[in-house]
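Sequence only, no structure available. Ideas?
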Amino acid sequence: MTNIPVTTWSLEQTAPTDLLPAAAPEGDVRIVRSEVPSPEFSRFLYTAVGGDIRWTDRLGWSRARWVDHLDRAGVETWVAYERGTPAGYAELVPQDDGVVEIVHFGLLPAFRGRRIGGHLLAYGAARAWDLESRWPGIAATKRVWLHTCSLDGEHAMDNYRRRGFTLFDTRVEEEPEIATPGPWPGAHPA
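Reply:
I predicted one. C-alpha cells follow.
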C-alpha cells in the first residue's frame, strides 16, 4: 500500500460575531435538527456524505458505539433537506470549557455546487454558538472549530473562510492511500 501526503487545516471562530452569513439557496431547502438520536440515520449521513472523499474513521463503529456517541449531552446533528431529501449535515460536539467542534460537515454529492453548503455551514455554526440554550448544563460557547483536509471537496476551505473561520493550525501527514469506499462497502459513486 502506498502513502500519500494529506494536509489538515484547523479553523476557528472565537466570537459569535466572527460568523458571516450565507445567502439562502433557492428552492425548498430546510435545515432541521435530528432530535431523536438514530445511529442508522447518522451512519447513513456519514457514509453518504463522506463515501467519495474517504471518510473512513467511523466505518468500523458498532451500533452500540454510535448510540454512545449520539447520546452524549450536547451532541447534535443538523440536516439540510431539499424538497424532503437529505442533502447534507453538520454534527456538533461540545468539548471542555465552552468549545464546540463541528466534527462532520458536508453534502451528499448530488447536492454539491448548489449553494446549500454555505447556508448549512452558517446555520450549523450559529447552532454551535447557541448550543447551551438547548442543553442545560452545557457551558456557554466561547469557540467553534473544525478541520478540513486536502481530501475534502475542492470548495471546502473557501466555504469555511467565507463563513468567518480563520486558520489556526496546519499539519501534513503521510496516510495510506485507500480506495474511495462509497456510501456502502464496495460501492463507488457515479
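The beta strands are 3-13, 29-33, 76-82, 85-94, 99-107, 143-149, 166-176.
Hope that gets you unstuck.
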